[in-house]
Each structure stands twice: as C-alpha cells, then as structure tokens.
Amino acid sequence: QGTIKWRMQTYAGPALAAHVIDPAIEMFNKIAGDRMQIELFYADQLVPTGELFRAMQKGTIDAVQSDDDSMASPTDVTVFGGYFPFASRYSLDVPVLFNQYGLNEIWDEQYSAVGVKHISAGSWDPCHFATKDPINSLADLKGKRVFTFPTAGRFLSQFGVVPVTLPWEDIEVAVQTGELDGIAWSGITEDYTVGWADVTNYFLTNNISGAWAGSFFANMDRWNELPEDLQTLFRVCCDQSHYYRQWWYWGGEANLRVNGTKMQLTSIPDDEWAQVENAAVAFWDEIAAEGPIQAKVIDIFRKYNADMQKAGRPYRYG
Amino acid sequence: MQAYVRAVDAINYRIGRFMMWGLFGLMGILLWSSISKTFFLPSLWTLELAQFALVTYYLLGGPYSIQLGSNVRMDLFYGNWSHQRKAWFDACTVLFLIFYLSVLLYGSLSSTAYSLGYWGSEPITFFTGLITGEEDIGRLERSSTAWRPVIWPVKSIMALGFFLMLLQAISELFKDIARIRGEEIGSPQQ
Amino acid sequence: MSQEYIAIFMFATMMVMLFTGQRVFGAIGAVATIAALALWGTGGQDIPFSATMKLMKWYPLLTLPMFIFMGYVLSESRLADDLYRMFHVWFGSVQGGLAIGTIGLMVLVSAMNGLSVAGMAIGATIALPELLRRGYDKLMVTGVIQAGSSLGILVPPSVVLVLYAMIARQPVGQLWLAGIVPGLMMAAMFVFYIWLRCRLQPELGPAMPNAGNVPRAEKLKLLGAGALPLAIFAAMMVPFVNGWTSLVESSAVGAVTALVASILKGRMSWKVLETCTKQTLGISCMFMWIILAALGFGAVFDGLGAVKAIDNLFTEQMGLSPWMILILMQLSFIVMGTFLDDTAMLVIVAPLYVPLVGVLGFDLIWYGVLYTITTQIAYMTPPFGYNLFLMRAMAPPEVSLYDIYRSIIPFVGVMVLALILIMAFPQIALWLPEYVYGK
Ligand SMILES: NC(=[NH2+])NCCC[C@H](N)C(=O)O
Ligand code: NA
Ligand code: NA
User: Considering CB atoms only, which of A71, A74, A165 is closest to B145?
Assistant: First the structure.
C-alpha cells in the first residue's frame, strides 16, 4: 500500500503560512510518515483563491485552509466566514460559537450538501485598518480604496470605503503602486509579519470584528477514504494550529501596539465609532433577511452576545 | 473543407476586427477609474470590469491574431524549411494545439456550468438539460469582491473564446492539409 | 515517476515541441495539458483552464495593451522623424555621429513605450536606410539598432519589468526607477564602443562635414523635438511616482498622451490608427496566450512536485555558494533564452528562482534589472530572438541574415559587461529607487 498523497492549498502566502499552517502540516507529515504526506501550497499557487472551492469540490485540490467568504463557497453561511462585522469580540468567541452554540452542526450540514467536508473552524486576529494616511474620524474613511473581505467590504462601503479584492500576494505591491490606500484585512501582527507595515504608516485601533473565522476543509471523497486514525490525526493537527494562533495573535497584537515602531496608532473616538456598531445591527438584520440559515446563525450570534453581556467581566466590560 | 475554412476565417475575422477596437473600451474604463478617483469617489467596479474587458479582448481576439500570424514560433529549423515541409510539420503539431484548446474548452464549460449552480462533473449533460428543461439554474456564482458581479457572463465569454480558437486551429489544420496537396485555400494571412 | 524525472520529462518534451516550429503557446500548453491528464490524478483536467482565472486577476497585465499601443503610435505615426532629424543635425558631423545619434534616439523612444518593437521599427525604417546611404558599415548599424532598441525594456515604462514585478511580487515603481541608470549606463557604453570603433576604423562611420551646416536658430528649434518624448514620459511617470494615478491608470494615460500628441502633430490618420490598433491586438494576444499557457505549465509543474525537485537540486545537492547559484541562474536564463520565449521563461522559471534569490539574501529589485538585461541579450542571440526576427523582417535586402547574426556580437559583449558591472555594483541599479522612495 503506497503513501497517500494530498495537495492542500491555503489562502495565506508563505510569510503568513509560516505561522498559521506550516507547523501543523509539518507535524502531520512527521507523524504520518510513509502512510500519508500532505504537500502544502500557498495563496494562488495552484489555483486562484476564488477558484479554490470548486477545485476542492472536484478533487483537483484535496484540502483547503480558508475562510468561507474569500473562497466564495456556494453555501448560505459564506458571509459569516472571514470578518462578519462585530460578530465576535475576542478570539475565544469563535471556537465557543462553533463548539457550544451549534455553528459546527450548521456548517457541517451546509458543506456536506455541496460535497465538501468541513473539518473544523478556528479563530484568527481582529480586523483593523492599516493605511497610508491617518484615520482619526469616520470622515477619513471616505474614498479610501481598501483591500478587505467581500462581506466586510459590503458593510464598510456605507462609510465611503471602496473595497478592493486582489490576490493576497499582490497587496503589498498594490499599496505601493497606488491601487490601494490601505488594508482592512488583519490585525497588527499580520501587518508586521507579511510586510504591510512597511508600506503603510498608520494603524487604527478600532476594529470591526474581534476575530477572523476560518476553517479547514477537504474533498468529501478523499476524506472518507482516509482510515479513521489518519482522520483523527488530521483533526488533532488542525486543533494544534488553532491553538498556536490563539496565543500567537493574542500576544502579538498587544506587543506590537506597545513596542512596534513601524506604524503609528490612531483611534476614532468611541461615541463616533458607535455609529459603526449601530450600523452593524442593521447589517445583521439585512443578512438575516436573506434566508432561514442566515437568520439562524444571526440568532445564535445575538444569543451568544447577550449571554456574554450578562456574564459580565471578564467577558464583557460595560 | 474549403467551405469550412472560408466560413470560420470570415467569422473570426469579423469578431477579431471588432475586438481590436475594444482596446479603446479598455482605455476608457481605466481613464474613468483615474478621473472618478481624482474628482469624485473612486468606483467599485472599474478594476474588475477592466479585467473582464481584457479577458474578452485577448480570448475573442485570439483567432484573428492567429490569422495575422502574430503567434511566435521558434524558427531555428522551421524558418528554413520548404513550404511543403512546414505544412507537414504544422499539420501534425497543430493536433497538439487542438488538444490543448479542447481541454481548455472543456474546463471552461465545466466552470461555466458551476457558475450557473451545477456541481456535478458532466457539464455537457447540464447544458443540454438546460435546453430540454431537465436541469435548472441553481445558485449563481458571484465574484468574491464587494461589487459581487455574477461570474457566468465572463466564463461564457471564455468558453466562446476557446471554442472560436478551436475552430480556427482546425481551419489551420485544413489549410496545412491543402498545402500538402499543393493547393492554397482560404485567404493567406490578412 | 520521481519528481526529478517529471521535471526533466516536462522540459524535454516542451523543447522538442518548440523545435517543431509550432506556435510557442500551443507547444507549452499542450505539454502542460498532457502532463496534467497523465500525472495529476483527479481533477487534473481543470488546471489549464484555471490559469485563465488566475490571469484575469493579475491586474498589472492591464498595462500590456496600453504600452504596446503607445509603441505602435510612435512608430506608425512617424512621431520620431523629428527626433531623428535632431540627432542628425547635431551629431552628423562627428565620426560615427549618426550611429551615436541613433542610440540617443533609441533612449528617447524607450522612454515612450514599454517594449523594444517600437524602437526596432523606428530604427529600421528611419535610421537604417539613412545610415546605409551615408556609407555607414552595415554590420555596425544593424547592430546599433538591435542593441539600442533593446533599451526599450530597461528604461521605463517596461513591460518586461511589469511582468517580473508581478511574478516576484515587487513594486513596479521601484523596478522602473532601478532600470533607468543601468539603461543610461548601457547606452553610454554603446556610444563609447561606437566612438572607439570609428576612431580606429573611420570607414565604419564616416563623418558628414556639412550635416551641421544648418542655421543656428533652426538647430535650436530642432532641439524642441526632444521635448515631446520628455513630455510623454512625464505625463505618465509624474502622476504615477507621486501616487496620483495607479500603475494601470498611468498606462492608459500614457497611451492617450501618445495618441493626442500624434493627432496634434498632424500625424494621425485613420489608416495609421487602424494599423496601430490591429498590431496591438496581435502582439497583446501573443503575450496573453503565452502567459496563459505558461501559467498552466507552471501550476502543473509545481503541483507535480517538480519545483521542489529543482529547488532541492540547486540548494542542497550542489552545495553552492549564493553567488555561484546566482551566476548559474543567469547562465541558465541565457541558455534558455536561446530557445525559449522570454515571457514563458519568466512565468515558468522565475517562480523557482525568485524565492531562492530572496532566500540567498539578494535584493529582488536588483535581480529584476539583471533579469531584464539577460532578456535583452536573449532577444538578440540566435537562434530564438525576437529582435532578430524583427530585424530580418524589416531590414532592407542588402542586409543578409548572416549580417544580422554577426552584427550583434560586439553589442552582446557590451551588454554582458554591463551585466557584470551591475552584479558587482548593485548600487548602479538601486541608488535611484532608494533616493526617490527614500528607503
Ligand atoms: N515575450 C515576448 N513574446 N516578447 C516579444 C517582444 C520582444 C520584442 N523584442 C520587444 O521587446 O518588443
Ligand atoms: Na521603455
Ligand atoms: Na535568444
């Protein structure tokens, strides 16, 4: 019996992948040895990110790491992948929502229906603006061409932001060639890790979401062909990756705000920022109206946030 | 054979002539992008629309560029061969081109079917099903940008482009076969 | 099949296919497709097509038709005639002066378009017949035009540097600026070579004592011709470097400026516009289809593990020092450039080389300049060289193929020297971008 070989592609370029996925895959390969090897490819390497879903569904690619939104999954939960505005405050919110509030079941059902195995969701960093010019008020957002997620972009466009989607690897250069004025795609850890801090000057401390939600997926047939212990090993390695990111981002965000030298911090005052938070409430309603599954997920978000509010400190302050 | 060559060359010539002026459409979109950015709010759609325009330009213009002989060849040996010999070689190797184009065409059809909400692996059945009414259009694929245009139009254009290119390649094959027989069919490169 | 064999197999079949004389994109695409169907496994048949989607997202390619169009407007509308006259009058009376002036002409033309075709066409139609009529040596002048026109891709705007930028993910602005000084340096080296040769063998480039016998006022007026290229260059570069227009917008601005200039000078007619538009379609399609095929090839090559095999060979098995690896890469580019299209070479090979160059600690902007000069050499060296093809097509009958081949030898020598200089002194390339962008 030969070695099982998988091709996996991530949304991340090599610099970021060094943290968000490389360690997990190396671990998997080391343990699985001759039984199975996963070859990892980076952003757009084999197929463009927009085609990732279809490539996995057909088996051209065996497994994928991405958020649902960027790879344009044909499901009703796609809008919630990536940064859904104000859905979470801390990075621990995401696993709780999936494991304790029922999102896992919804995702499983949605993806099974389209021939893809949803293995597990994990949490990344909060969503902040990194820009060439400073943002001190909502008015400063007007007319800024910003690389961001499709759904976050839809939301932000009401404030005059012009969302632009480009291949991930082209972002740094696009800022330099004037295609972009800034980026609303990550927290400060990634800005430094992938080089965006070198081409932008300002970091806005207000965030539109506390944590990015992304997942590991596999082609359904490939997944079912795996012996159970390799499935388990794969899950364990995914969990390891989720864990790594929890501390890497949490510590990194604080450290770079305090000790980073490449970007200057700015803030929009809380009472002005409240307009954005209120707009999110309306946006949730708008999305809930799109279908029953969306409505169900939004209900869960509402329930979760209400619970956290009631729980009080340290879950929510004020 | 002769009729085929004449028909295909004529169609592709017309389409190509039309596409060639599309250059100014592309220029217009890019200029609008810089004007709107300088004087108003930048538009959401310019970059993506320009990308669609470029795809249309080079895929639908492709067959005409073959007629024009713009596609370079490595002519170390080829350049010195006789007419007959070139025709012989071309007639064989153009089969590889035809093969490549067929796979591109198949891929584009399958991707277009997907963009219309078909997730199986038999795009042809899907398209015939659409006509007979056995299949329905499903979830439309949208571009993952904030503008979110549906993708099937540009994917259909791609499929059309590969199809026309395939027709043109077959026409070239026929011309080569004729040349081997010592005849010249179709108009020589315009 | 092991990954090394896959790599060798794919390259070898591609080479054979190319030698049969089939269109380059067809040869590359077919090999990629066969390998995908035979070796990929499930879903391999979709890879060639998914390259179309990847290509669509590569937004810098939008500049390609614009820069190509600019070049055709320049050459077809004979905008450069005045420029040529300017050099003729100012330099004609010097030993070899017309040849030197032609290099000057090529520098200015380079500043107004992104490829070398325009320079080639202008050189072959305006300068070449004139120089031959004045008794210049035909080997000398054919060489001058080929070498001079190759500056088109080093002096901004440059399509080759845009393509490189896209693959190496480096900023186009910096790359373009990095090309300026090496481009001018190389032009100066060409000039020096011409001057020296004509010093030693005056019969190669006879002086025309009365070429400069033009009234002073007229002479000065002719200088005004030089303002046009500078204006076109500035209209495009100034907003771009200042960030007022993005790269793709700038390319459209450049194309429109060239068009408007030709109309204002009364040189644009319907016929000329039609020719320019048609040629632009032809060349753009050639580029796009080659990139499409090469992207498919690259993805299959990568997905089958061949890239890793080659990487491994370079870094681990051979155990070479960084400089050795760099020099080997340049050599392999030159060798590949003798049979492979430069764009295909870039799309297929650069994804292997560029990350390695980065890891070895070299500057990727600087490497872009090295790559571009290597490409220029590849354009001119037989058997496969675009400039050779073009020269063959455009040169008057008294210039034989053999002449064309021989004419480039000394110029290739000068270019290799320039390459070595820039390798030894990276600041030649890096100084300007660092100064402007204040790195
Ligand atoms: N990759 C190519 N097909 N290049 C063709 C262009 C070559 C030509 N000498 C130029 O620079 O204008
Ligand atoms: Na140039
Ligand atoms: Na060559």
Answer: A165
Measured from the Cβ of residue C361, the count of other Cβ atoms closer than 10 Å reads: 7
For C302, the closest of A45, A55, A177 (CB atoms) is: A45
**Considering only CA atoms, which of B60, B50, B47 is closest in space to residue B20?**
B60
Residue A219, strand partner residues: A116
What mean pLDDT do residues C153-174 have?
89
Q: In this prediction, what percent of chain A has a pLDDT beyond 90?
A: 86
pLDDT in tens, A113-149: 999 999 999 999 999 999 999 999 999 999 899 999 8
β-partners of residue A65 are A10, A216
Which among B19, B33, B72 is the top mutation candidate for probing chain C, defined by the most C β-carbons within 10 Å of its own β-carbon? Answer: B72
Q: What is the pLDDT averaged over residues B67-91?
A: 87
For the CA of C286, the closest atom of ligand 1 is 3
Please say if the pLDDT value at position C212 is more than 80. Answer: no
Contacts of range B183-186, beta carbons closer than 8 Å, 24 or more positions apart: B185/B1, B185/B2, B185/B5, B185/B6, B186/B2, B186/B5, B186/B6, B186/B9
Residue for token pair 């480009």: A166
**Residues C62/B26, Cβ–Cβ less than 8 Å:** yes
Contact assignment for C169 to A50 by CB distance below 8 Å: no
Work out the end-to-end distance of chain B between its first and last CA atoms, rounded to an integer number of angstroms: 20
- Say what the pLDDT of residue C1 is: 64
CB of C343 within 6 A of ligand 1: the answer is yes
CA distance C30 to B95: 9
Is the pLDDT reported for residue A1 higher than 80? no
By Cβ distance, the residue of C57, C171, C299 closest to A177 is C171
Q: Which of C35, C28, C34, C45 is nearest to C1 (CA)?
A: C35
Ligand 1 close to Cβ of residue C344 (< 6 A)? no
Cα(C438) to centroid(ligand 2), Å: 23
Least Cα separation, residue B22 to chain C (angstroms):
9
Q: What is the pLDDT of residues C69-88, one digit of tens each?
A: 998 998 888 888 888 888 88
CB atoms within 10 A of CB B77: 13
Spatial separation of the C-alpha atoms in residues A231 and A237, rounded to whole Å:
10
List, for residues A190-204, the tens digit of each pLDDT value: 999 998 999 999 999
pLDDT value at residue B188: 52
Residue B68 in tokens: 């024009």
Inter-chain touch C20–B154, beta carbons under 8 Å: no
Alpha helices, H only, A195-269: 196-199, 220-225, 228-259
ipTM of the prediction: 0.93
* pTM exceeding 0.90: yes
Note the pLDDT tens digit of each residue in A148-195.
988 899 999 999 999 988 888 888 888 888 889 999 999 999 999 998
**Residue the block writes with tokens 């401390």:** A205
Tell me which of C67, C116, C376 to substitute to probe ligand 1's pocket, judged by most ligand atoms within 8 Å of the beta carbon.
C116
State which ligand 1 atom lies nearest to the alpha carbon of C390.
9
Nearest CA in chain A to B138: A74
- Per residue in A10-20, pLDDT tens? 999 888 999 99
Question: For residue A113, what are its two tokens?
Answer: 């229906």
- Among chain A residues, the shortest Cα distance to C37 is held by A60
Packing angle between helix C63-76 and helix B2-39, nearest 10 degrees?
100
Give the C-alpha separation, C132 to C141, whole Å.
8
Residue B161 burial by Cβ neighbours in a 10 Å radius (0-12, 13-18, 19+): buried
